[in-house]
Amino acid sequence: MSRAIDVPAAALDTVFITETPEGIALQLHPAGTMARSFAYLIDAALRIAVLIGAVTVLSTMSRFGTGIFYVVAFALEWLYPVVFELMPAAATPGKRALGLRVVMDSGLPVTPAASLVRNLLRTADFLPVGYALGLVMVLVRPDFKRLGDLAAGTLVIYANSTSLDGPLPAGEPVPPARPLSTREQAAVVAWAGRAARLTPERLEELAVLAGPITAGAPAGSHTTRLLGVAQWLVGRR
User: Fold this and answer.
1) What is the pLDDT of residues 104-113, one digit of tens each?
2) CB 146 within 8 A of CB 36
3) pTM score, whole prediction
4) From CA 165, how far away is CA 159, in angstroms rounded?
5) Residue 7 near residue 17 (C-beta atoms within 8 A)
6) Count of CB atoms within 10 A of residue 46's CB?
7) Shortest CA distance to 146 belongs to which of 134, 161, 155, 128?
8) Whose CA is closest to 99, among 109, 108, 89, 111?
9) CA distance 213 to 91
10) What is the pLDDT of residue 192?
11) Are 17 and 5 in contact (CB under 8 A)?
């Protein structure tokens, strides 16, 4: 189960930090009021355009056309956001235009149940008029969550918030205690590349598993020794 990581309050600002079950520390950047408002306006304009087109086409079909119009209006109001949030981009066209996406608090993709809950509760966020309650919630919370997000455990973040890999941390190159297969070499280098996004505890836990590889390394933590092996594997000798 993911958990929030304690960081100094001054460092939070508009950054939301969480840890996944695998021990990966993710830094998410929640979207604020302006970005979400502009995204909503874009989506509203698209929905209105579709409704106008539907009225134009269905107005000649009498009562049958009226029934189809109500189905289209319902789908646009309640299914439009859910369908787009469950796609790979995890965002409606308006959110995509602003570089936003919807994720779970853990940084993982939003689930169908969570998407349904957050969108059904837009009714509560609308109260008493014009999304007033939702706007107040977004303004007073550092993670910019409205009621729907709180109930569903979701966040609206900037799409480029999470990057799991990075450059290898500095370390003294150390040859492995035994020859490594190509797969083992790739695993060690991948582990080192994720070091900045893993919690120290999880980093050490994984490094312990590679103990036989670092048996001949100088004294130090398992993390330090395995980082040295990673440096050696990428040619820094």
Assistant:
1) 887 778 999 9
2) no
3) 0.64
4) 16
5) yes
6) 15
7) 134
8) 89
9) 44
10) 82
11) yes
